Amino acid sequence: MELTDSAIITKARLGDADAFRVLVERHSRPLFRLAFRMTGNQQDAEDVVQESFLRAWRQLGRFDERASFGTWLYRIATNCSLDVMRGRKRRSNLSEVEDPVLALPSGDPSPERVAMSGEVRERVAEAMDELTASERTAFVLRHFEGMRIEDVSRVLGCQPGAAKHSVFRAVRKLRRALEPLASGAR
Amino acid sequence: MNHLSEEQLMLHYYGEEDDALPAERHLGECDDCRALYGSLQRALNVVDSLPVPEPGAEYAEQVWKRIEHRLPARRGVRWIWDLPARWRWAVASAAFAALLVAAFLTGRSYPHPRQPAQLAAADPQAGERILLVAVGDYLERSQMVLIELANARTQGPLDISSEQERAVDLVSENRLYRQTAGHTGDAAVASVLDELERVLLDITHAPSRLSPGELEKLRQRLEAEGILFKIRVLGANVRNQEGQTL
Lengths: 186, 246
Known about the structure:
- The complex is a heterodimer of chains A (186) and B (246).
- Chain A has 186 residues and is mostly helical.
- Chain A is built from nine helices and no strands.
- Chain A has two domains: 1-88, RNA polymerase sigma factor, region 2, helix turn helix motif (Rna Polymerase Sigma Factor, Chain: A); 117-186, Orthogonal Bundle (Arc Repressor Mutant, subunit A).
- Chain A is 70% helix and 0% strand.
- Chain B contains ten helices and two strands.
- In chain B, helix 1 (6-13) crosses helix 3 and helix 8 (187-205) crosses helix 10.
- The N and C termini of chain B lie far apart (70 Å).
- Chain B is extended and about 80 Å long.
- The longest helix of chain B has 36 residues, at 116-151.
- The interface between A and B is large, with 73 and 59 residues.
């Protein structure tokens, strides 16, 4: 029978690295997707995943096992992502940004790969970069991760109302920035 | 007809409203709102089309290989905070009960036995004193973290991860003391602890490396709210009460 995260954490707290490895195996992929959505860069996302697990290991003693380990880990990963984003200088030349389309697994080109023009990618990346840290985090968690606003607020450590406003401001900014492109795509 | 606000449209898009029917009905009848909603849908569809690289099947294994040798050794349970929360509370409660029993037994074996009424009064005093000592100690530790940040001088980014780790612990403790103050009707104490908790929470949520500008903002906030002064006053009051219970 598969052990729950909570049972594994109890072992990991006692220094059992193999138990922690199970948590890494369970949560690495979703954490990578979150980190990529947050940072927009594959290398940064991989760094965020590693740093998040290292922080989680160090802070396991503080984890309240009544809470969800996934939510707690997301919180650590969003903080790591924000650190990365604040730490790096905004790239002035977008052509230097790693192309997420090229990073897709090889195979027949999907319709998205064909349809996604360089201009659209740049505009979406720019629009996302215009969001504040809290707006971007709240938007990524609500829009891409499908979290309810109440769960977003738990990750952000704020009231649901504040999380809702962050998502709302992000959506409004994105709509205004991308409206011309979206109209063209009609 | 009242139009739907952008916020209502956003909540409708994500299915977060209490009742979706009124918005559905309005969108069926109102061209303006339908156009705005369509614009929102199209913009978010564009965002959705940005692809995310899918990590390979062996990704988790790679992550583990990269971090395995970097995991600092955990030496089992070192301190109460390493225990799961329910054990933590059980240990804390047991320790508190043991202190009360010890206070009671000390009172009984005192060379000049007191009257039963005095003995009964001694127990709650011992409990109160233990609580006051704990709160006084808590305020001192909180003050230390804030003072370190307020007095930090740096030309470049400042690593505050150590202060953040202490702030996380302090926030957990704060809730316990604030709830106790609330139960005992001590509104002034609860209010200062509430303010302190908000400041500590902001510190825990800040980036672990603060730029000089961010540090200055934090410093200004501490100054504007006078939180350090309030903690000092509360700490002095607590110490004073602690002395009176001796």
